[in-house]
Specification:
Layout lengths: L28 H14 L7 H9 L8 H4 L5 E3 L9 H5 L5 E6 L5 H17 L6 E6 L10 H12 L6 H9 L4 E6 L20 H14 L11 E7 H6 L10 E4 L4 H23 L3 H20 L1 H6 L3 H10 L10 H13 L9 H27 L8 H10 L11 H16 L5 E5 L2 E4 L2 H11 L5 H8 L5 H11 L5 H11 L1 H5 L3 H17 L7 H17 L7 H14 L12 E4 L2 E5 L10 H4 L7 E5 L2 E4 L5 H9 L12 H8 L2 H13 L1 H4 L1 H5 L8 H9 L24 H17 L9 E2 L3 H11 L12 H4 L40 E7 L20 E4 L16 E4 L8 E2 L3 E2 L1
Parallel strand pairs: 2-5, 2-6, 3-4, 4-5, 14-17
Antiparallel strand pairs: 1-6, 7-8, 9-12, 10-11, 12-18, 13-18, 14-15, 15-16
């Protein structure tokens, strides 16, 4: 085989950098032109800019908003995808010469590349740093016949429209040692070349890897340049690890996280503020438009708060920007993933081009475009289910375009006319439009898998009911089946079709078919998310009730996979959980008075300093009076009633002066508590610090977030706010306040004996309940390991699924054998107790709470996040000050 790149610089060549000192580098005319062009071409969102919304809503073209005005800095996980996140500045301050940024589709790696390029150019021009940014989209780079520095310079210039400006290219090449080169889209390069004739096509991934390794490890700038240039490389996570031949060595890995709820809300606020500024600049004092924007902003935030599935998808910047761009006002904001995706596809392929030079084309071919993209989604999902590569190439695109043609009398056209029409439509689709993305020189994929699944769901509508049933019984078709229902729900007679199909599956459901029940549950979740309750038919309401009961019955199965338990819990969170519809007093399990024992002979083995400070030995016996303990942890739905009743603002619910001042938002108290939380943070974050899930620099921010808030810390988090999940992110005082409010509420209704009190369990009560459940086992169940009986981290080592970084619905392990129906005593989330963190003594059995002071309080039961093996045992103790709050800490109630 001939040498395809005989003129390319060898990997061992040494770049001879400019002899000028970095710190004293002046900006030449060529560099100045590149800087100007880069800031003009890169300093805005590639897709989803507020200007697109203004064009849609007001039919007026405006300038794109500056990227820094709407962009929310990402957070990262380092070295692996587990553990806590690190802030954006950690990447910026990394002293390594190169960093590898890995991300899932839609997380914003290309936007990050654009932002960094502009940021580094601005900082360099303002003399804030001694290097500038060069953005090199690897899909455009041509290596054949060029040295590496020439290839970088040509590609960077080409991307900003200066490929013919030799002065710019020469200056970029000459000054490359003063740059941070940002190689974007490593995953977009092909792994292999089909034929020798493809010599001038896109470079191979291995070739780009050789370039990057050479710049990193072989080529060095001259001594006058005091710091080597930096490299940042972006790639899809999966693609990077699938191709080991293109490994980039020991570069530190930064895994871009999806948005947190706070980031998502900040992005919504910034986006609407940018739109508001555009409206003011172009429409002067248009108060109605400004008011509409404010209502729309609140409407989007409320919708995402209420619809967890939609919010989860919108935790990626791509999908959030699609939501913000596509929908005109608060009245048409979608409540489901299927609606969002279908409207986004229509907008980016059709509506966006109305009243442009493409208007006639999309009017004539709009239906054809939609049918073709649907065929692509169907075809690719069939491939995924079959275990094949999901990307499609140009030849397949043409074939799908032809087969999906909706033009009347198309077959009567002559061959050349047919081919010309197919070429126009296929070429239009090939541009991607923010929905499709090029993954190789001849391969395309959807930018987010959910688009593929929604389109596959749309294609299911063309099947007969009996044919569709076969797909519904296949686990890998559950999402498309669900999205089929979501698209149908807003159509005329759509509810009738959904109801008929649920009836078609009823026989399978009655035979306790897991897949049929989950398919029906998914479809009905879409209906509830989309259709107002008053419009849901009587038949559908009956079917919803039947499916809820069947889902609960499935939880009794011993061999049910953990992933299916969690899925059932999520569905019940939307459909309504029958287990939680009884009054709270009907879910109290009474424990008889008697002598009991707590503790153990030897302390637990643990490497974490915090737990070592809280010994479980020696054992101690004592007497407990009769008490009742709740079967379930307190849920979000239950705690929401406390919030709606104004519980945070009612003084009598707060157990001491400090708690009351905190609830009132007293600034002096808040600052004192932030200081106290920071002082003890090294202890309470010791496990996170030991596992490098948290770095010391992040502790102050964590402490501020814990203390300075009004509602539970994760109240807006779609991962934690389903109605039947345990409420988390609240401190000891909030748990006490809820108990006091609940007690008063039940007494006012005449439901609770005036002599009874509702409070947190003391730890002796908690432990004796756990011992009785497990018949004196070390676990609160009679047989089985924690991985089979509770939501704990170790559970995921037994199944080929990713760890779940959140809690699940309460009481999902109903098949676990216990003597009392008390659930989640181990796993899911830690539980606040009413006891102070003291060694065991005679006071350990006093069944009242001492609410005075800031002493540490005991928590029990471990969680989905716990890393210590013995933390799942019922004698294991943890503790926290009453002002701390975590994602994996909740509570249950006791009545005495």
């Amino acid at each position: 085989m001939p040498d395809l790149d005989e003129h390319r610089t060898p990997e061992q060549e040494v770049i001879k950098a400019s002899s000028n000192s970095r710190k004293k580098k002046s900006v030449s005319t060529g560099l100045a032109k590149y800087f100007q062009a880069a800031l003009e071409h890169l300093n805005y969102l590639e897709y989803g800019d507020p200007s697109e919304y203004i064009l849609r809503k007001h039919k007026m073209e405006v300038f794109n908003s500056p990227l820094e005005s709407i962009w929310v800095p990402p957070r990262f996980r380092r070295q692996d995808q587990s553990g806590d996140e690190v802030p954006f500045n950690t990447l910026l301050n990394d002293s390594n010469q190169g960093q590898l940024v890995l991300a899932d589709p839609g997380c914003g790696k290309s936007t990050l590349s654009r932002y960094l390029t502009c940021l580094f150019i601005k900082n360099f021009r303002q003399e804030k740093q001694n290097y500038f940014g060069i953005l090199v989209p690897l899909s455009l780079i041509q290596l054949s016949g060029k040295t590496y520095q020439e290839a970088v310079a040509h590609c960077a210039a080409k991307y900003v429209g200066l490929e013919k400006d030799n002065e710019v290219i020469d200056e970029l090449k000459k000054n490359i040692s003063y740059a941070c080169i940002i190689f974007d889209g490593f995953d977009e390069l092909p792994i292999s070349r089909k034929t020798i004739a493809d010599k001038d096509s896109a470079s191979l991934r291995q070739e780009a890897a050789a370039l990057i390794r050479s710049l990193l490890y072989v080529q060095i700038p001259q001594a006058e340049s005091d710091t080597p240039y930096k490299l940042i490389i972006t790639c899809r996570t999966k693609d990077y690890f699938e191709d080991r031949t293109s490994n980039l060595g020991t570069l530190p890995h930064y895994y871009m996280s999806k948005f947190s709820p706070n980031q998502m809300n900040l992005a919504i606020l910034r986006w609407h503020e940018a739109a508001r500024i555009q409206v003011i600049d172009h429409f002067k004092s248009n108060n109605e438009a400004i008011k509409s924007l404010a209502e729309r902003c609140v409407g989007i935030q409320s919708t995402l708060r209420e619809h967890s599935d939609l919010a989860t998808v919108c935790l990626t910047p791509l999908m959030l920007n699609a939501l913000q761009t596509v929908f005109s006002d608060v009245k048409d904001i979608p409540s489901s993933v299927s609606q969002l995706c279908w409207q986004a596809i229509n907008w980016f392929f059709i509506d966006k081009y109305r009243d442009t030079n493409q208007d006639l084309f999309v009017k004539q071919n709009g239906a054809w475009l939609m049918e073709t993209i649907t065929e692509i989604g169907w075809s690719m999902h069939v491939r995924v289910v079959g275990g094949q590569l999901k990307a499609f190439n140009n030849i397949e695109l043409r074939e799908l375009t032809k087969s999906a043609c909706t033009l009347k009398d198309f077959t009567k056209l002559d061959y050349d006319s047919q081919e010309d029409a197919i070429t126009r439509v296929a070429s239009f689709l090939r541009r991607g439009h923010g929905i499709l993305v090029k993954v190789s020189d001849d391969g395309f994929d959807f930018v987010h898998n959910v688009f593929r699944e929604v389109l596959a769901g749309r294609a299911l509508a063309r099947l007969s009911m009996s044919e569709r049933r076969l797909y519904a019984l296949n686990e890998q078709w559950q999402n498309p089946i669900r999205y089929w229902a979501g698209l149908k729900a807003s159509e005329n007679d759509g509810l009738y079709e959904i109801s008929s199909f649920v009836a078609e599956l009823s026989q399978d459901v009655q035979s306790e078919s897991l897949q049929a029940t989950l398919a029906c549950g998914g479809m009905l979740v879409e209906v509830i998310a989309i259709v107002p309750s008053q419009l849901i038919t009587r038949m559908l309401k009956t079917q919803i009730d039947e499916i809820r009961e069947k889902l609960c019955c499935l939880l009794q199965k011993e061999n049910l996979r953990l992933v299916d338990r969690i899925k059932i819990g999520d569905m019940l969170g939307t459909l309504g959980d029958p287990r939680l519809e009884k009054g709270v007093l009907d879910r109290i399990i009474w424990i008889a008075a008697g002598n009991c024992q707590i503790g153990r002979i030897e302390n637990h083995r643990t490497r974490i300093l915090k737990y070592q400070k809280c010994p479980a030995a020696p054992p101690l016996s004592g007497q407990l009076e009769k008490f009742g303990i709740s079967s379930y942890l307190v849920t979000n739905a239950e705690f929401q009633r406390f919030i709606e009743a104004g519980g945070y603002d009612i003084d009598k619910y707060w157990c001491n002066e400090t708690a009351l001042k905190w609830a009132r938002g007293n600034e002096e108290t808040i600052q004192i508590l932030i200081k106290k939380s920071s002082d003890v943070a090294q202890i309470h974050y010791s496990s996170e610090l030991a596992a490098q899930r948290l770095v010391p620099d992040e502790i102050p921010e964590r402490c501020i977030q814990m203390i300075k808030r009004k509602f539970p810390l994760y109240w807006e988090d779609p991962a934690n706010n389903r109605p039947n999940q345990p409420v988390v992110g609240l401190n000891w005082w909030e748990a006490i306040a809820y108990c006091r409010w609940l007690e008063e509420t039940l007494k006012n209704k005449g439901l609770l004996d005036p002599q009874k009190t509702i409070r947190l369990p003391i730890e002796a009560e908690w432990e004796i309940a756990a011992r009785l459940c497990g018949d004196n086992s070390i676990y609160p169940w009679i047989d089985g390991e924690p991985s089979d009986c509770a939501l704990v981290r170790v559970a995921f080592t037994k199944e080929d699924i990713a760890p779940l970084f959140r809690s699940c619905g309460v009481g999902l392990f109903r098949s676990v054998k216990t003597k009392f129906p008390i659930y989640d005593l181990v796993g899911n989330v830690w539980e606040w107790s009413g006891s102070k963190a003291n060694p065991y003594d005679k006071n350990s059995f006093i069944q009242t709470l001492d609410t005075i002071g800031l002493e540490d309080r005991i928590s029990r039961g471990s969680s989905w996040l716990s890393s210590e093996e013995e933390s799942t045992q019922i004698t294991f103790r943890s503790f926290d000050p009453p002002y701390n709050a975590y994602e994996d800490l909740g509570f249950r109630i006791v009545i005495k």
